[in-house]
């Protein structure tokens, strides 16, 4: 039987009182199960953290000794138990180490997706599907009007830009995916990366998912027009607003982050509307609980077939 309050939000984040743990808490807690290493899901200062090995590595890189008091790293498809709740990490396809969190308790299955994507990505494990009674899905782009374009077609746009490119992207996950896509589909481009991205790339290499050919940024190199693509995190991208001799692009699924109308780069690491519908088909839930966005469109779409509850 599905327990209606199996997870619920409080001031610290999403809490499972039946296992006494938080999922991707927003404030430091005693016991946290972390889906992936992006800062809006993995904060520092927790006492105990359960996560995958790559997520542990990224958190230690970012937070150092403050990452957590104790880490328990668990592989995909390797069940473990916290206070009678059986938990299994399932690959989410969002970035390296990202996991859906399958929770089983008193005969019911609850699948928290975290952030996830369906598109192929050579820099992380592909998404895997399991059936569930409750699908707890992110709804960042849960809008029938939002359909992400093919990322390969998007990255091929760079082939038509002959001057150097300043490419804004989040340093963890998105940058490594872009390095790989550019190497594969715009191979004449020379990829430079910001110095803060290099240690992240090193973890990808160590974990067996090398992003591809790139080198650390050199001001001297960028003075030459040799079809360089310089990938920088958002804070650096914003500081270069008056940069000359480059085409400025920002790789994102968000329309408001596209910096010019002539050259957009819609590459998202989140599911769009059709992807969420596919997720429902694969997981076959009796109920859908939504978070991290607006679930009203899903509630309207499944009104007569599947119960939809908005957690936030």
Structural features, described:
The protein is of the alpha/beta class and 312 residues long. The chain has two domains: 8-144 and 270-310, Metallo-beta-lactamase, Chain A (4-Layer Sandwich), CATH 3.60.15.10; 151-257, Rossmann fold (3-Layer(aba) Sandwich), CATH 3.40.50. 21% of the residues lie in helices and 26% in strands. The chain has helices spanning 53-63, 151-156, 174-185, 198-206, 219-222, 234-239, 273-283, 296-301, and strands at 8-10, 13-16, 21-23, 31-33, 46-51, 68-73, 80-82, 85-91, 99-105, 108-112, 134-138, 164-168, 190-193, 215-216, 228-232, 246-250, 287-291, 307-310. Helix 1 (53-63) runs antiparallel to helix 4. It is globular and about 65 Å long. The mean pLDDT is 96.
TL;DR of this structure?
With 312 residues, the protein is α/β, with parallel strands linked by helices. It has helices spanning 53-63, 151-156, 174-185, 198-206, 219-222, 234-239, 273-283, 296-301; strands spanning 8-10, 13-16, 21-23, 31-33, 46-51, 68-73, 80-82, 85-91, 99-105, 108-112, 134-138, 164-168, 190-193, 215-216, 228-232, 246-250, 287-291, 307-310. The protein is 21% helix and 26% strand.
> So how many helices?
8
Largest sheet: 7 strands, mixed
Q: CATH first level of the largest domain: which class?
A: Alpha Beta
Number of strands: 18
Strand order, sheet with most strands: 7-8-9-10-11-17-18
As a percent range, the share of helical residues equals: 10-25%
Terminus-to-terminus distance: 23 Å
The tally of domains stands at 2
What is the arithmetic mean of pLDDT? 96
* Shape descriptor: globular
The succession of helices and strands, N to C, reads: EEEEEHEEEEEEHEHEHEHEHEHEHE
The portion of residues forming beta strands comes to 25-35%
């Amino acid at each position: 039987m599905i327990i209606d309050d199996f997870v619920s939000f409080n001031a610290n984040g999403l809490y499972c009182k039946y296992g006494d743990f938080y999922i991707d808490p927003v404030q430091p807690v005693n016991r946290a199960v972390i889906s992936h290493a992006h800062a809006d899901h993995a904060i520092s200062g927790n006492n105990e953290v359960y996560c995958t090995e790559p997520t542990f590595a990224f958190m230690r890189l970012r937070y150092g000794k403050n990452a957590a008091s104790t880490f328990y790293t668990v592989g995909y498809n390797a069940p473990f138990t916290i206070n009678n709740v059986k938990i299994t990490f399932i690959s989410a396809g969002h970035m390296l180490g990202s996991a859906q969190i399958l929770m089983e308790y008193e005969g019911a299955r609850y699948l928290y997706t975290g952030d996830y994507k369906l598109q192929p990505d050579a820099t992380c494990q592909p998404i895997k599907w399991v059936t569930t009674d409750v699908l707890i899905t992110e709804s960042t782009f849960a809008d029938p009007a939002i359909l992400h374009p093919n990322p390969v077609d998007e990255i091929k746009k760079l082939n038509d830009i002959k001057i150097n490119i300043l490419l804004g992207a989040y340093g963890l996950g998105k940058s490594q995916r872009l390095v790989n896509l550019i190497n594969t589909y715009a191979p004449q481009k020379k990829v430079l990366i910001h110095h803060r991205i290099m240690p992240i790339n090193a973890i990808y290499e160590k974990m067996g998912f090398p992003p591809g050919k790139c080198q650390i940024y050199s001001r001297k190199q960028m003075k030459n027009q040799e079809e360089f693509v310089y990938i920088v995190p958002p804070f650096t991208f914003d500081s270069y607003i008056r940069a000359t001799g480059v085409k400025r692009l920002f790789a994102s699924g968000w329309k408001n982050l596209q910096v010019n109308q002539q050259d957009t780069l819609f590459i998202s690491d989140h599911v769009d509307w059709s992807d969420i519908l596919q997720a429902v088909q694969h997981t076959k839930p009796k109920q859908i609980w939504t978070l991290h966005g607006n679930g009203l469109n899903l509630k309207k779409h499944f009104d007569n077939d599947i119960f939809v509850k908005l957690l936030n």
